[in-house]
Design a protein that fits this description.
heterodimer, A: mainly alpha, B: mainly alpha, 13 helices
Chain lengths: 294, 313
């Protein structure tokens, strides 16, 4: 089979390409481990209410505070006597849903701006990119702190703050992808065929830049999980008493000497989740672009 | 070459104005006014209006913004803190120095840990020198810096009792905070240096250098590393954001009187002038360092040099 034929087959049969990516993804041991780990974590979070009711996560029992792991309290209890296991199971829901939603929204905002800047070029490009340069001169953490301070800390505002902190990566990434792709023949052909700019961007350029965007998005989920827990640690995340991993760690600080388990379990929850996401991201990168494999 | 540097320095002006605008704008969304914050909720409305007028709070946004810029640049006046009722600048400056010191230690430490390990991992690929540090770097990428700090605190302060757990009274106080902020960027540097070096080692010019009989040392240090250095320097610049985030966390965790912990503390008191001024000062410093990175980059990268040399001629 010659190369041209092979190429046309790939572009017509979408199914076979995703199969091929899946085949390459499966080959990487790390990626499969990550996928299994993340699936288990997501299943636990999804069925959190079946595993332990939410009321246990917030129920205080001062008589039994700061106990180590035991059969009744699998991961021990915190300074208010609340069950740490239940708090981790329910706390993950907030952390991970914020991380996923913030990743999606920053991806959409950033990709749209990047695609516009790259495709139109000229004045529009320089206005967007120069504003972005200025925007990026404010370190993320300070900007997020300012936004949370101005708007107050709740789920929606955190989402806004995280989106604003993370959309900038996508603008640069998608812009450079579009700049490379816009010069290719098939885009030229679409333009000659009379397609509108919006259509060329949406149906010809973005699908081809998808690989890079997907890899970046996956890796961003873990970054946002860490970032969000840092905000909670600084007291800028979800307000207590809602269970949340970063908040649990922040509360554990005072009791570090006597009850290190309060530090250990939420930290492990964050590390395992972020690790599995990173493993999947690395696997996807190798699967989507075999050239990058080192 | 000089044209490039001058161009970059000139761009500093709109950047600083823009940064102040963004932060000033975001802070203006906050409900409440300065007089209410200073006089308390029981003060009569007439007094509040009078003080607001004196402070220039009732002016239109653009006017306030211009006044703020004017006071900041001409008089180094960032206003009066709502909380301590003292000059914001006097309060912030000593803390600013502490934060910068910490961040600098972070840059240096993360580079001297991460880059050599990365080079070595690439040169000895698949050996223990590659796998062990790489696995470590991978794991660290999944650990928030405050957890790292807490682990250090637990081991060195609580269990071994070797290092002080708070304050900045002696040099040893800086060890743990500096490690806390430099380990995550060091891991990033390692991963980045390794991939950059691996790419560079496989290039044709490296093979040519080997073929003409250059000793292995020269091949690695002169030919491969010199070319791998460009993305590594960019990465150090990009790490700065991470370092500043880390500094805020480390200051809070180790009770260091820096600017980050000041901002976090004052958020509870809604002390707007301190928050605005602190954020702006760090952002300006950040911008200047980014500029330095760009200038260093231009010195090393012959392509940028060539581009501007051509324009001159």
């Amino acid at each position: 089979m010659n190369n041209a034929m092979k190429h046309s087959e790939i572009s017509f049969k979408k199914q076979s390409q995703s199969k091929e990516i899946w085949r390459r993804f499966k080959k990487s041991k790390g990626a499969v481990i990550g996928l299994v780990m993340l699936s288990i974590i997501l299943l636990i979070l999804l069925f959190a209410d079946v595993i332990v009711p939410y009321s246990i996560a917030t129920k205080q029992d001062l008589a039994n505070k700061l106990q180590g792991p035991s059969m009744t309290h699998l991961f021990g209890t915190d300074s208010y006597g609340r069950d740490v296991f239940a708090r981790i199971v329910h706390g993950g829901r907030t952390s991970i849903s914020i991380a996923i939603l913030a990743t999606i929204s920053s991806c959409i905002v950033g990709s749209a701006l990047g695609a516009i800047a790259g495709y139109f070029g000229g004045k529009i490009d320089s206005i967007i990119m120069r504003s972005l340069d200025i925007f990026m001169s404010v370190p993320d953490i300070l900007f997020t702190m300012a936004v949370v301070f101005a708007l107050g800390a709740n789920f929606t505002n955190l989402l806004v703050a995280l989106t604003l902190a993370y959309f900038t990566n996508y603008v640069r990434l998608v812009r450079s992808q579009v700049l490379n792709l816009a010069e290719l023949d098939y885009v030229e052909a679409a333009r000659a065929g009379g397609s509108s700019s919006a259509r060329i961007i949406a149906s010809h350029i973005l699908p081809n830049a998808m690989g890079v965007i997907i890899v970046n998005t996956t890796l961003n989920v873990s970054k946002i999980i860490l970032y969000e827990s840092t905000l909670s640690f600084l007291g800028l995340g979800m307000p207590p008493p809602a269970p949340e991993w970063g908040l649990m760690l922040s509360e554990a600080r005072e009791f570090m000497r006597t009850s290190p388990h309060l530090l250990f379990f939420p930290a492990m929850a964050i590390v395992l989740t972020a690790c599995s996401v990173n493993l999947i991201g690395d696997g996807l990168r190798d699967a989507l672009d075999p050239h990058l494999k080192s | 070459m000089y044209r490039y540097i001058i161009k970059r320095i000139l761009f500093l002006i709109p950047t600083v104005l823009g940064v102040v605008l963004i932060i000033y704008f975001v802070m203006n969304i906050t409900p409440g006014d300065p007089a209410r914050a200073m006089l308390g909720s029981s003060a009569p409305q007439a007094d509040i209006d009078k003080l607001n007028h004196e402070l220039g709070y009732d002016l239109p946004f653009i006017q306030k913004y211009i006044n703020y810029i004017y006071n900041m640049i001409v008089k180094q006046d960032f206003g009066i803190s709502y909380f301590t009722k003292q000059s914001v600048f006097a309060e912030i400056w000593p803390r600013y120095v502490v934060t910068i010191k910490l961040a600098l230690m972070g840059v240096v430490l993360s580079s001297i840990i991460g880059i050599p390990l990365g080079i070595y991992a690439a040169v000895k690929q698949y050996s223990l020198w590659d796998t062990v540090p790489s696995i470590f770097a991978f794991l660290i990428a999944a650990v928030p810096s405050f957890v790292l700090g807490m682990i250090l605190l637990f081991i060195f302060s609580l269990k071994l009792n070797l290092l002080p757990s708070y304050g900045i009274s002696s040099f040893s106080c800086y060890i743990m905070p500096a490690l806390t902020i430099s380990i995550p960027p060091a891991a990033m540097n390692l991963r980045f240096t390794k991939s950059s070096m691996l790419e560079s080692i496989r290039q044709d010019f490296v093979r040519t250098a080997r073929a003409k009989g250059a000793p292995e040392n020269i091949v690695i240090w002169k030919h491969a590393l010199k070319n791998a250095m460009l993305p590594i320097i960019t990465n150090i610049g990009l790490n700065l954001g991470m370092l500043i985030a880390g500094a805020v966390v480390a200051e809070k965790l180790f009770s260091i009187p820096g600017i980050g912990s000041l901002i976090v503390d004052r958020i509870t008191y809604k002390d707007e002038p301190v928050i605005i001024a602190g954020t702006i000062l760090i952002a300006i410093c950040f911008t200047i360092v980014m500029l330095l990175v760009d200038v260093i980059y231009a010195y090393i990268d012959p392509r940028i040099k060539a581009k501007y040399a051509k324009m001159k001629g």
